[in-house]
Write a structure and sequence with these properties.
Blueprint lengths: L8 E6 L9 H5 L4 E3 L5 E3 L11 E2 L10 H10 L5 E5 L4 E3 L1
Antiparallel strand pairs: 1-4, 1-5, 2-3, 5-6
Length: 94
C-alpha cells in the first residue's frame, strides 16, 4: 500500500495580481483568510494586519487550522493565487 506523506506547510502567500476575490479560500478556511479593502485575499496573522505577503505557518492567527485545510484552500482558488511552500522552502502548490 502506498502511504501518502502528510503535508507540512512552512509558509504561504497570495499573489495579488492573480487574486480575483472569489473567496473560495475563505469558504474552505475562514479562520485562515479574509478579503481586504481591495477585495483581495489576505492571510490572517497573529501580529500585524492581515497580509498577502509571505507568511510563515506559525504566524497565522489560527494555530488550530491544519495543513491539509490550508492546502485545500489554496487548491480551491480558481486562479491559483495562493502559493504554498513546504518545510524545505520548496513550492508545493501550485
Amino acid at each position: 500500500m502506498n502511504e501518502k506523506k502528510a503535508v507540512k506547510i512552512w509558509k504561504l502567500m497570495v499573489d495579488r495580481n492573480l487574486c480575483i476575490g472569489a473567496a473560495s479560500c475563505i469558504a474552505v478556511a475562514p479562520t485562515g483568510f479574509e478579503l481586504d479593502a481591495e477585495n483581495k485575499a489576505v492571510l490572517r496573522r497573529k501580529v500585524g494586519p492581515p497580509s498577502s505577503d509571505e507568511t510563515r505557518r506559525e504566524d497565522l492567527e489560527d494555530q488550530a487550522i491544519d495543513d491539509e485545510t490550508l492546502l485545500l484552500a489554496a487548491k480551491s482558488c480558481p486562479t491559483q493565487a495562493i502559493i504554498v511552500y513546504n518545510e524545505e522552502g520548496e513550492q508545493i502548490y501550485p
